[in-house]
User: Which sequence fits this backbone?
């Protein structure tokens, strides 16, 4: 089995602990900063379902903040599910990996680093994301999209687009195909 570092080296990917910024030309992000910030909140609440947070509280909050319609039809079924297997819950918990990438895209996380460990969910809950029940306006207003040149890797850009589209079905940051 190939380690992540070996895979990265073989594909010419930087293996520094913190990937340096590269000033490159690129296309504009296809989503607004508000859309990316809202998507990160949706992913955060989906992961919370996986961690057994009361779905009704989550849905009520999303509706109160007027972002419930940003959840996909499939995601809405997860909030409504009466029972889930351990595997299903685990898949929802993995949404934090996509969330972390989006938080990087809107400058809430300084560095993604190499995908050698899972993200720190305590930091997400305690320091970065709005608290359940609190307004999200300040979180969205303080979000800033990184420049196109900051999207240094096709792998990262692909993960961001997949997460924004709500089509993440497994942890992309750890899948090496």
Assistant:
């Amino acid at each position: 089995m190939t380690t992540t570092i070996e895979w990265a080296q073989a594909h010419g990917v930087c293996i520094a602990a913190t990937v340096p910024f590269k000033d490159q030309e690129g296309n504009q992000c296809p989503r607004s900063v508000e859309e990316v910030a809202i998507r990160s909140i949706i992913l955060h609440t989906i992961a919370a379902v996986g961690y057994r947070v009361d779905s009704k509280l989550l849905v009520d909050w999303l509706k109160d903040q007027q972002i419930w319609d940003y959840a996909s039809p499939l995601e809405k079924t997860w909030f409504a599910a009466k029972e889930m297997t351990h595997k299903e819950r685990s898949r929802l918990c993995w949404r934090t990996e996509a969330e972390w990438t989006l938080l990087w895209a809107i400058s809430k996380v300084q560095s993604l680093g190499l995908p050698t460990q899972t993200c720190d969910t305590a930091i997400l809950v305690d320091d970065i994301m709005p608290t359940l029940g609190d307004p999200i306006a300040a979180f969205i207003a303080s979000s800033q999209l990184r420049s196109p040149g900051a999207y240094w890797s096709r792998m990262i850009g692909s993960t961001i687009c997949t997460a924004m589209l709500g089509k993440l079905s497994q942890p992309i940051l750890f899948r090496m195909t």
